Amino acid sequence: MWNLNDYETVEERLEKFWKEHPDGRIETELLEANANRFIIVTRIYRTEADPKAWTSGHAEETVSAKGVNQTSALENCETSAIGRALANAGYAAKGK
Questions:
Q1: What percent of the chain has pLDDT over 70?
Q2: pTM, rounded to two decimals
Q3: Among 81, 82, 92, 93, which one is least packed by beta carbons within 10 Å?
């Protein structure tokens, strides 16, 4: 069962990544955008010079009638994709 107390925010994960990889880079790419949904992929590189991504993560968000996705589905999607990529790189506490 998912527990909010165990969740590490994307902001917390980003702080860890930048501390360990100050010359790294994070790229996001909008794969799909229409009136109802967004799909984004994030690629993380350990250094600016790396030709190949170290890890990646995808996210999909659907525009909704209420909540954060009513006004900010695109932003939420990008943050989610970054969080997935960071988790895939090991920037999330085990089991979180």
A1: 90
A2: 0.89
A3: 93
DSSP 5-26: GGPPPHHHHHHHHHHH-TT-EE
Tokens of 86: 């960071």
CA atoms of 83 and 57, how far apart (whole Å): 8
Q: What is the pLDDT of residue 5?
A: 64
pLDDT at 31: 98
pLDDT at 96 over 60: no
Q: Which contacts (CB < 8 Å, 24+ apart) does range 33-42 have?
A: 33/74, 35/63, 36/62, 36/63, 37/61, 37/62, 37/63, 37/73, 38/73, 38/74, 38/77, 39/77, 40/77, 40/78, 40/80, 40/81, 41/81, 42/78, 42/81, 42/82, 42/84, 42/85
